[in-house]
Task: inverse folding
């Protein structure tokens, strides 16, 4: 588990990336038995798992597909869905255009809840800024819907809402909010109406969190309330790659991870990487040298 190889949870299993001398891909690790069952292989000489989200039975991930080992080509990516119950998956989206080139823009950060996946799909831009669509797909029916288009971020689920950031034509930073169940826009809750810019966004059943500016400030909205929580840090641990688990926020610091208790404001550092679900935290620790060939 690492910021570049995130993980998710499905019951007593962890879903994440695996690498060995002769194989690489995404697999399910049974935490009780230690058995790893591959789900899918990832192609390319330098490709691999980018972002993953899990809401059983669905696993959705974005992967880098570049096969050019001499350079990192970030515009070559795909989004995939896998059903853990059926043991089958399919391609949801790609950066490849019909003419064989690739669309430019930020790699999407997909999320999934209740069988619906969502992400910001970059689209060819008509002007000077990268453009994207906030796109959803019902993984059971295949129904696709577009919720917004423009200078938008990838969405997250926060409580009963689907939330994303947008910069409007006047350059103002906005939060867009839709009902997570029906995809309909709703009135933006008061605490989100003057949010300022953001760089990282995370959501959970109880909280919406974002880091902005120089990443030394974290803002958290307890969903459904009329208040915002603000935290600052000066220890060289910027608030980036945010995750939420219960009333804890987790983030990668550049050389480890940190965990902050939103109720008390207390925080602590972890040497390894972390992965979170709504109610679970997994910590990666190296206990010895890996076996030869892995």
Result:
């Amino acid at each position: 588990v690492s910021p570049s190889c995130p993980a998710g949870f499905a019951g007593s299993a962890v879903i994440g990336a695996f690498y060995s001398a002769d194989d690489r891909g995404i697999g399910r690790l049974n935490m009780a038995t230690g058995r790893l069952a591959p789900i899918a292989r990832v192609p390319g000489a330098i490709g691999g798992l980018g972002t993953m989200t899990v809401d059983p039975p669905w696993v959705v991930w974005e992967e880098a597909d570049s096969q050019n080992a001499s350079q990192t080509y970030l515009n070559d990516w795909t989004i995939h869905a896998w059903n853990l119950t059926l043991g089958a998956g399919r391609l949801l989206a790609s950066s490849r255009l019909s003419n064989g080139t690739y669309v430019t823009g930020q790699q999407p950060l997909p999320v999934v809840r209740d069988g619906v996946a969502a992400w910001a799909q970059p689209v060819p831009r008509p002007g000077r800024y990268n453009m994207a669509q906030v796109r959803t797909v019902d993984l059971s029916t295949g129904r696709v819907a577009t919720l917004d288009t423009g200078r938008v971020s990838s969405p997250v689920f926060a409580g009963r809402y689907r939330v994303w950031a947008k910069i409007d034509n006047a350059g103002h930073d906005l939060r867009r909010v839709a009902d997570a169940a029906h995809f309909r826009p709703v009135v933006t809750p008061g605490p989100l109406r003057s949010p300022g810019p953001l760089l990282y966004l995370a959501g959970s059943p109880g909280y919406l969190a974002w880091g902005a500016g120089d990443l030394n400030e974290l803002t958290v909205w307890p969903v459904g309330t009329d208040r915002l929580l603000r935290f600052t840090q000066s220890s060289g641990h910027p608030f980036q790659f945010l995750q939420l688990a219960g009333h804890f926020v987790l983030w990668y610091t550049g050389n480890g991870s940190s965990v902050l208790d939103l109720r008390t404001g207390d925080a602590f550092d972890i040497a390894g990487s972390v992965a979170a679900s709504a109610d679970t935290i997994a910590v990666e620790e190296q206990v010895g040298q890996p076996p030869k060939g892995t």
Summary: The longest strand covers residues 144-152. The chain is about 0% helix and 50% strand. Residues 119 and 288 are 38 Å apart (CA to CA). The radius of gyration is 19 Å.
